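Case study 2.
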Amino acid sequence: MKSLFAAALLTTAALVVPAIAQTPAAAPVAAPQGKPKLIVAISVDQFSADLFAQYRNRYTDGLARLQQGAVFPSGYQSHAATETCPGHSTILTGMRPAHTGIIANNWIDQRAGRSDKTVYCAEDERAPGSDHDKYQPSDLHLRVDTLGDMMKRADPRTRVVAVAGKDRAAIMMGGHHTDQMWFWATDHFVTLPSRSTAPVPAVVTRANEAVGKLLAGAQAPLPLPGYCKGLAQPIAVGGQTIGTGQFQRAGGDAKSFRASPALDGAVFALAAGLIQDMKLGQGAGTDLIAVGASATDYVGHALGTQGSEMCIQMAQLDQTIGAFLAQLDEWGLDYEVMLTADHGAHDMTERQQQRAMPMEEHAAASNAAKLVGAAIGRDLGIAGPVLIGPESDVYIADSVPAARRKQVLAEAKRRYLAMPQVAAAFTRDEIAATPFAKTPPETWTLMERARASYDPERSGDLMVLLKPRVTTIVTPAPFYVETHGSPWDYDRRVPILFWRKGMVAFEQPLSVETVDIAPTLAATIGLPVSGLDGRCLDLDAGAGDSCPR
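Prediction:
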């Protein structure tokens, strides 16, 4: 099977990277020695360790190649708030959300100088006329450096590029000093508003034109691999029937394009174009490109993880990555690859209930902070709002009198703990008093997982964690039938893979963390780093050690 990337984008190279057709391929490199010339850091959004395990013996191309390197199948996004923005903030910083400042996709800042107090993790809320839905993308809230920032500080000749299907993926992996940053927005790639006056590189224009043609045309059903046929079972959820789809869509349907393998194809096509256009990996030092493959997450949210759709997505992703790596080989580049995910997930409630998990359930609407706060306000005689907050972080409204805040917090905790779907409710003081865990991540208590997500300026007054197999989705709807974000291991566990030509393959089944990735990559290029939450992982399969001692 050919992926959309290989069949429709890479083979029409004149639209995206025309230099491919005219530039003779460099002589293939032997197994490289010393520092790689290019680091390729790939995040596959919502690529859980369970999904990797389910399909790893089906991969035949790019993901099969990466399994011939150092495989850590039990990586952890070890914090509690397993969302896209926090997860991406750990991958190339070596720091947990408690230190990156990225505690969630959204949080409440009651001091924000606008009526909308919900802040998106990758925005600049100071922008006039903005709100958390119509925002100005920015790296403002990322409090630490990424590996690319560290590399550029050590060697200004380093080029750092980020390309992703989501702005928060590109921003959190690329960091503060990228040379180029592009991410998908509705129907084309855009960059940060702060760079909007800079000329758009021709390769980006060509990529947008090529992808625009794909998007404008209808998409016929993609091939269904034989091993996917047993998963093609219809299921009714959210007013629709899904589970047997093959990504057919009408021309111009941008939302369906985004929740399909085509989005990853577009992202990797642009990444290849920028590598060629900027001659990444051909300079005096080492360059870095961060690639955020976001389609798996959009497919998971829209269609779940256990139907024909995700099976096809896994096959297409494997082919897309394979075509991308084959292109780097053709150019003769000396590169190393790291692939991981920002979080995991598990399948939608309705299909889980049919498949031996009847205890799966949707969160009750009564769990919402607004409703709990309203009840507290009535009982204690406090005018509302009393509690506000998205997801697990619950904030006491600033309008609550200072003398009543302690009482409100105690009552909120009591009420949440009495709810049958709630596993824990921790106050900010309880979390802040908890030391950071130093044991393997699968052994952490819920409090320790909460500590890794806690920031004193941004976190709520109370962190509420639901029990296992309770999804935060109250009512499923089209494009939103499954989610993640819990402190449980199905959302925390992700694969971590490292590959470089000539590397001796090995697998380490014991747990590691995504914060270990940055110091590990830094060691491969001889870049000293310190003060990180993560540790260097030894990528030498033998008696040697790739980490500094």
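The CA atoms of residues 5 and 320 lie 6 Å apart.
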